[in-house]
Amino acid sequence: MTTETHAQTLTKTPDISIVIPVYNEEKNLPLLFERLTAVVDKLDRPAEIVLTDDGSKDNSLALMKSYVEKRPDIMRVVEFDRNYGQHMAVMAGFETARGDIIVTLDADLQNPPEEIPKLIAEMDAGHDVVGSYRRNRQDSVFRTLPSRIINLIRERITGIKMRDQGCMLRAYRRNIVRMIVESGETSTFIPALAQFYAERPSEVEVEHAARHAGTSNYNLYKLIRLNFDLMTGFSLVPLQVFTMVGMAVSAASLLLVVYMFLRRIFLGPEVEGIFTLFAILFFLLGVVITGLGIVGEYVGRIYQQIRQRARFRIRAIHEKN
Ligand code: UDP
Ligand code: MG
Fold it and tell me: Per its UniProt record, what InterPro entries does this chain match (predicted)?
């Protein structure tokens, strides 16, 4: 709500906001700034660029502040007090953005800024969420293969259709962004949430480049965490599958008990096969621990949410207009 009143006090409300999360991107920012401002100037519509500094430890913040000085007409910078992760950085950008169409992209130039007009055109055609998928994804197979598998599992479990969940070049209508902000979720996945709220979603094909400089901030561990957020945030299927596995195992064990009982009566007790028993036990132990883990994933998120701590803290907003 505060963002609304803030927007109303301004004389010039931008049509388009471009929101970018930034974490240690000093090597990419100069080129990003150059290419992005060129694109924005060509749009010929009132626009703003909202950069969120997600607690960068390099020179990123200083660079971004200098861009506010250079282009006070379009640049705004949200400064976090520490690192809260990509999605919270986008969330803060959403809270601050004033445009009617809000576009997100990455700071590392993997999403070419030149594709933004394509998304805006699709929004103008009447869609409220425009996603994108990468034409020839410039990542190693170690990234593309797991992400393809994860995409499939995610779609089966959550029922959310997205051709390319990892592509952050997306456009959202203001009402969708407001719903996302007001959801108040802490561990969330913004494109999925948007897809969930969207009435008329669409997707366009975009180019994809290799990271301009630096290395990805995501390692395997972070990727797994992100996908847990996706699964637990949008579905109870993992819990239900687990219940069903439990029931199936119980039924099978019951059959085994009956068999052993009959065997004991007619053939006598059996003593062999002790290691088979161990194998089965260890397997089941694994299943139980996994189940505890899945329950824990949900409980942990409930706990996080219930504490009602602030999702992030904005130290300052640097802007001139
Ligand atoms: N990012 C962020 N906070 C983080 C990690 C990443 O704001 O804790 C930003 C990063 O600066 C970039 C975007 O999120 O603009 C995507 O990050 P990255 O390129 O590392 O991820 P990948 O493209 O490998 O998925
Ligand atoms: Mg990247």
Answer: Glyco_trans_2-like, Glycosyltransferase_2, Nucleotide-diphossugar_trans
